[in-house]
Specification:
By secondary structure, the protein is an alpha+beta fold. 25% of the residues lie in helices and 28% in strands. It has five domains: 96 residues, 2-Layer Sandwich (Nucleotidyltransferase, domain 5), CATH 3.30.420; 70 residues, Nucleic acid-binding proteins (OB fold (Dihydrolipoamide Acetyltransferase, E2P)); 86 residues, no CATH class; 121 residues, Aminopeptidase (3-Layer(aba) Sandwich), CATH 3.40.630; 164 residues, YbaK protein (Alpha-Beta Complex). The N and C termini lie far apart (58 Å).
Amino acid sequence: MAVRKILMLKKEGKIWTFLLENDVIAEIHCSLPDSDQHRQPVLGDIYIGKVKNIAANIGAAFIEIAPGKECYYDLSQAPQAIFTHKIGKKPLCIGDELVVQISREAVKTKAPTVSSNINFTGRYAVLTTGNTRIGTSGKLPRSLRDTYKEKLSHLKNEDYGLIIRTNAKDVPFETVLEEIQKLENACVKLKETAPFRTCFSCLQEAPPSYITDLKNVYADGLSAIITDDPKLYQQIHGFLQAEQPEDLSKLQFYEEQLLPLSKLYSTDIAVERALKEYVWLKNGAYLVIQPTEALTVVDVNSGKYSAKTKKKSAETYLKINLEAAKETARQIRLRNISGIILIDFINMDDPDMMQELLKQFRRFLGEDPIQTSVVDVTALQLVEVTRKKYGVRFTNASVTKPKNHQKEVNTLSKKELKTNAMRILDRSKISYEYQTYECDNFTDGISTADTLGLPHERVYKTLVTTGKSGSHYVFVIPIEAELDLKKAARAVGEKSVEMLPVREITTVTGYVRGGCTAIGMKKAFPTTIQENAQTLDYIYVSGGKLGMQLKLSPDDLKNVTQAQYADVTF
């Protein structure tokens, strides 16, 4: 049995939770403190929502939980919904008001998802209004699952169901029963009070995610909960005293000044590594981990692998794939990757070897406390994996790089680090700052902003176009906006303009794609900045190479590029 510790650190305005197993970091989670946590709806929040629109053709409705804040809703849930105001006789009508819970947070362009299946989650059990069965975690021994179903059979009813969690394995039945009673009381109270609350009311806020981490960690083998922040210590102490008194004795306040807690367990290094796209294996092979909005792709590459003996290539590939499978399982848990995951292992023609790989991969994934399953292998030998969503993936939580990745311009010690754009700004005596981040390939502006924790409205992208006359024009617009080619053409006095092909960007501008900036191109092309920028005191633009952003005044950018302001976006 693994010895588990939980570290909780406050850094850069965020609370970091590290789960250690045998003193090795196995999970990383990141959240905002209480004061910032609920500015936006988060997973688990319960609201009174109002049906804004119904799209029967896709089996969905769109429900507002606040004015203008629409969420996706599955129409099949309507018969089980708890209504606070019902308009028509149909299962769901426009204008209906009902109790909904955030079941999936917003992801980039995707709206949050809400459900009328309301879950009340404890450490040992979950009470749900959407399912009346009594179920148990698949990680519990078969005999214990049967015992719980038998002992709880008298609680079966038409109002709610129960799911017994893995943590119930090592506690007395009475403890689980006591928690179920608390969850039932919470459910009854919500149903009683909801009809008297106004539309868009938040009936229940989800606890901060770092508190959820304490509830969800395996109780088995938990030896210590450690923090070095006094305020955080008091918050954790209050929660444990009220909800998990059995763990109160494990709470420790770390006071060693000479060796900070982050240094003792190398947490900064762990975070930095978990943000990287490339993961090297001991045998010289490597993984490429690329998250997208819809899924995560893991590509296995042989890299520098060199077999010590002249074995058949099939055996060599199996060895690489087995180590890759073990590391992939570790990275999925470490980074809290959820949803659909596709792993492109090195192809093997031997079906027996493929079955051995899948067998071992399932074993590695089985060590994850979150439900993770190998679904299938496609015709292209892509292994499909699904993992249940748990909390927020820390790489999506506006995580910034450690401070040594963000330096002021005046701290530059190596002349060669400066780009052409920076030198031009220096000569013009224009004040600016810069930030760097790891980037080997083109990254879109939104991803860059999220990596650096920058507000989207202040980050601008640089686009290059070609006019009907053959002349080139540069447009600097917000990363979330789209260039209106008709407006752009009128702004520069052309009949029409079109985007410069990607393959020609370097030839025309002297910059690579993703590092292109209006400052210091091969030629001084006419430049237009979206007019909204002039209302801001500063914006961010590319610094002239991949992995660099410049912060400067829009007016300074306009002056140094001899640009104009104009409305050129949709």
